[in-house]
Amino acid sequence: MIVKNEEAVLARCLDSIKEVVDEINIVDTGSTDQTKSIAAKYTSRVFDFQWVQHFAAARNFSFQHATKDYILWLDADDVVTVENQEKLQHLKSTLSPATDAVSMDYLLSFDEQGNSIYSLRRNRLVKRQRQFQWIGAVHEYLAVDGTIVHSDIAINHQPLSHDASRNIAIYEQLLEAGEIFSPRDLYYYANELKDHSQYAKAIDYYEKFLATEQGWVEDCIQACFKIADCYSALQNDKLVIQSVVKSLTFDAPRPEACCRLGFYFMEQYKNEQAIYWYTQALSIQEPDHTAFRNLTFTTWLPHLQLCVLYDRLQQFELAYKHHKQAKSFAPQHPQILHNEHYFQQLFSK
């Protein structure tokens, strides 16, 4: 782990993993709170690293201190549930020594019931002897190859706070120093600009990223969606839909693209066309180890919209069918609660 000023969450993370791992290595990058003293309660292997505005450098330094056969990396605001602790224990006892890396789900957001709604895959466990390296000053990634196992283990990301300006500041320092951004850097810098409401500049960098034609296909598709969001914020509806359609040039339609197209037609009261696209969103089968998963677009949202669309067409049985499906996924969603009341009144008449 690399940490800095994580006194609020570090013990929570280490408590969730201490019984599973054989060694804990903590690299502190300049804490001024109680982070290091908390870490010392769990391990004597606490090391200092002078922060150089480069996350990959810090993570590579942390990997140098590992002594076991495999390295598991976590962030301080991550949590391993009891269920996943057990899965990790099982993995330790069954993992083939020929395995170079193990990918795991990274659960990033949750609904009211605690169910994951947005996740991605990360290479979490790697063979130390392979000496895999981290790459990137910000939004760093671990470059792996060889035999990779896609496990069903999940790590929960549960931050209590977020330094919103840290990453964009690093990127802008790199630009000022004359750094030439890689396609990945262009994409993630655009994300930071979008998150800071610099929409026109974000669009420019997303377009620069796409123009390289070297981006990962999933990032290219997401860039199209994010450009659409920027144009929406700038109230340019024509370019919103053009950006969504552009995502179809990279691969088969993603559920999110289908829902965005459905919404476009829904807003124009082109109900049949909207029904087509929301139905498509529900029909797409994503593999279990897909890189990004946002269950919103394959569960309650398309069902909710189909409920509204069929109600418009006065096909009330179909509308209610989709309402029940939406309710099964998000029973406390305000719009679904509103629809529940609506159908009670409708059927009482």
Largest sheet: 6 strands, mixed
**CATH top level assignment of the largest domain:** Alpha Beta
Mean pLDDT: 96
Outline? globular
In the CATH hierarchy, the third-tier topology of the largest domain is known as Spore Coat Polysaccharide Biosynthesis Protein SpsA, Chain A
Structural class: alpha/beta
Spell out the helices and strands N to C.
Answer: EHEHEHEEHEEEEEHHHHHHHEHHH
Q: Considering the protein shown, what is the CATH homologous superfamily of the largest domain?
A: Spore Coat Polysaccharide Biosynthesis Protein SpsA, Chain A
Distance between the termini: 61 Å
Q: Give Rg in angstroms.
A: 23 Å
How much helicity do the residues have?
A: 40-55%
The total tally of domains equals 3
CATH architecture of the largest domain: Alpha-Beta Complex
Molecular structure report:
It is a single chain. 48% of the residues lie in helices and 15% in strands. With 349 residues, the chain is an alpha/beta fold. It folds into three domains: 156 residues, Spore Coat Polysaccharide Biosynthesis Protein SpsA, Chain A; 89 residues, Serine Threonine Protein Phosphatase 5, Tetratricopeptide repeat, CATH 1.25.40; 70 residues, no CATH class. Strands 4, 5, 6, 7, 10 and 11 form a six-stranded mixed beta sheet that branches. Strands 1-2-3 form a three-stranded parallel beta sheet. Helix 1 links the parallel strand 1 and strand 2. Helix 7 runs antiparallel to helix 8 and helix 11 runs antiparallel to helix 12. The termini are far apart. It is an enzyme of class 2 (transferase). One of its GO terms (molecular function) is glycosyltransferase activity.
